[in-house]
């Protein structure tokens, strides 16, 4: 067995696709200690800089003192802490939906929702660049999976027009794409869903807390709350916490409680995590200046990277891809930046399509003007072949 495993690893290595873990020994933030070295962090999803916010820590600590650490069992057994129930009520109020349900992670939410709502008699239309958890949820559902070219409304309409004889049609999309940082054409998707009698599910993982006047996401920004029946998002990115939610009708939530296997057959989140998420939700609403700072930082970094000649695709979010093409080139660029104290990890196939390996640069509200200057200078230094 060992030699078979080694052979497989060797194959991964020769393609430049080998991944290994690095060790972080500091809190998350604009600066972290990575493998023992202090570096500026430009690859975190902690977009609003909340993961080490003292208010989240205090909420978690208070919950730890009152509720202990582990949750004991699944939600449907004895693990349904009042912290989770309150979090769900607050999320539903925030999202202006009848109800919400918390899952233990975004991955589990997508896998659970899609496999609960769709089966062999159904068809799912999924953007080609949707997150892996959506793809896995589609596969697990056993529904027919019709993937449409990225953000291509005309192609999607062609597929919808062809689909007949299915019990149920469901369109699913990231609202902000996790590796390209561009956005889904939500208004058109809503229109098509209505026209072709399809259900619409959105994944707001990279939009929740960031887009919309109160941080409700891209759906809020476009004023489409009433038109998107299945709204999923994570608490692990802008909220600086962990876990995920789906917001929608009472019937949707009730059905998921009864049928979503990744909800039913897993231990509930520790109550302290839910407590920290509730605090994050309050901060997201009360401190819009974080969103404003994030937008300014993202606009500046994107502009300056473009000025250096990098291809940043159609990014309009804090996710700024720097596409270099081959996997080895992306790894090399990442290594050279790290030599200059800037940490940006390389993203390679299968996470992104072949030939589009990149650095996935992300910026947060916590970065200072000086941090961004240092990041741009490091990219320029690598480009000009200067020694670190
Ligand atoms: C679009 C999208 N959906 C879902 C997830 C999974 O969320 P989580 O990290 O909470 O499991 C991610 C995380 O990378 C994501 O980018």
SSE layout and pairing:
Elements: H1 2-14, E1 31-34, E2 37-41, H2 54-67, H3 75-79, H4 82-95, E3 99-103, H5 106-117, E4 123-127, H6 132-141, E5 144-148, H7 153-162, E6 169-174, H8 186-195, E7 199-203, H9 218-221, E8 230-234, E9 244-248, H10 250-259, H11 261-264, H12 271-286, H13 288-307, E10 319-325, H14 327-339, E11 342-343, E12 346-347, E13 357-362, H15 369-383
Parallel strand pairs: 2-11, 4-5, 4-6, 6-7, 7-8
Antiparallel strand pairs: 1-2, 3-9, 8-9, 10-13, 12-13
Helix pairs in contact: 2-12, 4-12, 5-6, 13-15
Residues 105-107, 110, 131, 133, 174, 178, 203, 205-206, 234, 236, 244 line the site of pyridoxal-5'-phosphate.
Give an overview in words.
The chain is of the alpha/beta class and 388 residues long. It is built from 15 helices and 13 strands. It has a seven-stranded mixed β-sheet with strand order 3-9-8-7-6-4-5, with helices on both faces. Pyridoxal-5'-phosphate (PLP) binds next to helix 5.
In short:
The protein is an alpha/beta fold and 388 residues long. It contains 15 helices and 13 strands. The strands form three sheets. It has a seven-stranded mixed sheet, with helices on both faces. Strands 1-2-11 form a three-stranded mixed sheet.
